[in-house]
Amino acid sequence: MSTDFVRTPDQRFADLADFPYEPDYLDIDGLRMAYIDEGPTDGPLLLLLHGEPTWSYLYRRMIPPLVQAGFRCVAPDLIGFGRSDKPTDQSAYTYAGHLGWLQSFIAGAGLSEINLFAQDWGGLLGLRAVAADPERFTTVAIGNTALPTGESAGDGFDSWLAFSQSGAFNDVGGLLSRAVQARTLTEAEIAAYQAPFPSEEYLAGVIVFPRLVPITPAHPQVEENKAAWNVLEGWTEPFLTLWCPEDPVLGHFQQEFIDRIPGAAGQPHQSLRPGGHFIQDDRGEDVAAALIAWLSLD
């Protein structure tokens, strides 16, 4: 693969606050994709997918209780994020391309009987992966995400999209410090969110991601998302939503999933307050406890 990319120096990830996990790596189309794999190798598998503009560090409050409960937790860094390689040309990033990278990771890591938890772009990608290969997944849980099919995601998303493309968005750590509502991030945590992006050339994936959400009929992947919804509307395996409804960007999408997906019927859905878009950081221990209880491992 001839795509030009940068690789964040390892020293940027030294001594991360509350995140002692060493990464593993897979080669995906000539790019190094990082992931952490914690917990008993024979435990039930939880695939934890992050979104924009975070990385697996987002799961630091969830992984310890999940591992203690007996789960194997696999949390990849999407290409362009975290410790994964970062193509420098924005055109290298597409919705279909990100999905292909994720599917290659799942296959390359040999993941099956997956219990999924996904948020933000983790949901846009993870739900597509479920629809494409439902036999590989056992349960699905999501938080603060969406699966748009060419329509507006609302004023909150529109405001975020405008800001993300304004040229003013270059401080990922600062963004997280403002967006997390239920707690105050420490300086060390803010630095850890910023760590993957030492300069502007590392930010191509971060900048382009909001533009890829299919919120108009002209966007690529609208028809593919509609096809995914057709599969999900026949999904009868357990489907759980854990949501912060005060999220100004995607807080209003919880009920759509409950109404449209048969496997959501009768499940112990939760709305968590206070909290914002980054539910794993705002309410990580609560989300982990809900997953443990739901999967009957408590």
| Ends distance | 45 Å
CATH class: Alpha Beta
Helix and strand pattern: EEEEHEEHEHEHHHHHEHEHH
Based on CA atoms alone, the radius of gyration comes out at 18 Å
Strands, total number: 10
CATH topology: Rossmann fold
Tally of distinct domains: 1
In percent terms, what proportion of residues is strand? 15-25%
Shape annotation: globular
Uncertain residue ranges: none
Task: Report on the architecture of this protein.
This protein has helices spanning 63-68, 95-108, 121-132, 155-164, 172-179, 187-194, 204-208, 222-232, 254-260, 279-282, 284-294; strands at residues 5-6, 24-28, 31-38, 45-49, 72-76, 86-87, 114-119, 137-143, 239-243, 270-271. The chain has 298 residues and is an alpha/beta fold. It has one domain (5-294): 3-Layer(aba) Sandwich (Rossmann fold), CATH 3.40.50. Helix 2 crosses helix 3 (121-132), helix 3 (121-132) packs across helix 8 and helix 5 crosses helix 6. The relative contact order is 0.16.
